[in-house]
Design a protein that fits this description.
The chain has 206 residues and is α/β, with parallel strands linked by helices. Helices cover 44% and strands 21% of the residues. It has a 7-stranded mixed sheet with strand order 3-2-1-4-5-7-6. Strand 4, helix 7 and strand 5 form a beta-alpha-beta unit. Helix 3 runs parallel beside helix 4 and helix 7 packs across helix 8.
Length: 206
């Protein structure tokens, strides 16, 4: 059993039920379609709890999520961010999924904590200010990750954290990004066996 699933997570009223509903919806949807663009591809519940703990422990105020989908992971991030006075910026290439996420965040009462975008995450990263993000969560098409590395690294603040989902389930696709990380002075990384595998990259202060 994961340490995260064994932890007691405190939920605002009604949030546990909404998360369980979105989890069930995502599982049913993905089991009945082979079209990748139509699948939710949500994180696992223990990954959501893990992210929530990270946000609270870091008191992360500025959070970027790449890969909104229907907002399941965004609800986890935003609920934790709200508890520490933070905000989440999230982006997805799929406008339909952004609409679903908007609806679900309203249901969660978290719409004021989240800024949603539809578009190319690479453009958003390239335009972002240096050292702005406390925490970046990547859960999207993995092919561009290595190409985004310079802007991801520039955008993180010192002691900021990058978390990348699917590091075990899609290990081969992660290798180009890992190679960039290994070459980056000041980057410390570790693979955490939660959910589908979370790659954590800490930006040093030097």
């Amino acid at each position: 059993m994961s340490y995260v699933t064994a932890m007691s997570i405190s939920y605002p009223p009604g949030l546990r039920e909404l998360l369980e509903e979105l989890e069930t919806f995502g599982e049913h949807n993905d089991a009945t379609t082979t079209d990748r663009a139509s699948r939710m591809l949500n994180i696992t519940p223990d990954t959501g709890a893990f992210l929530a703990v990270l946000v609270r422990s870091m008191a992360a105020r500025n959070i970027l999520e790449v890969g909104t989908s229907n907002g399941y992971s965004t609800v986890w991030l935003a609920s934790a961010a709200a508890a520490v006075g933070g905000r989440v910026t999230t982006i997805d290439v799929n406008a339909r999924k952004t609409e679903l996420a908007t609806h679900n965040l309203r249901r969660a009462g978290l719409e004021r904590v989240v800024e949603l975008h539809t578009g190319d995450a690479g453009v958003l990263l390239a335009r972002g200010a240096a050292g702005h993000w406390d925490l970046i969560f990547l859960d999207a098409d993995r092919k561009p990750y290595a190409a985004w590395w310079s802007d991801l690294w520039r955008g993180l603040r010192p002691n900021g954290l990058l978390v990348v989902d699917n590091a075990v389930s899609h290990a081969a696709e992660m290798e180009p990004l890992l190679e960039r990380i290994r070459q980056e002075p000041g980057a410390a990384h570790v693979l955490v066996p939660v959910g589908k595998g979370e790659l954590m990259v800490l930006k040093g202060t030097a």
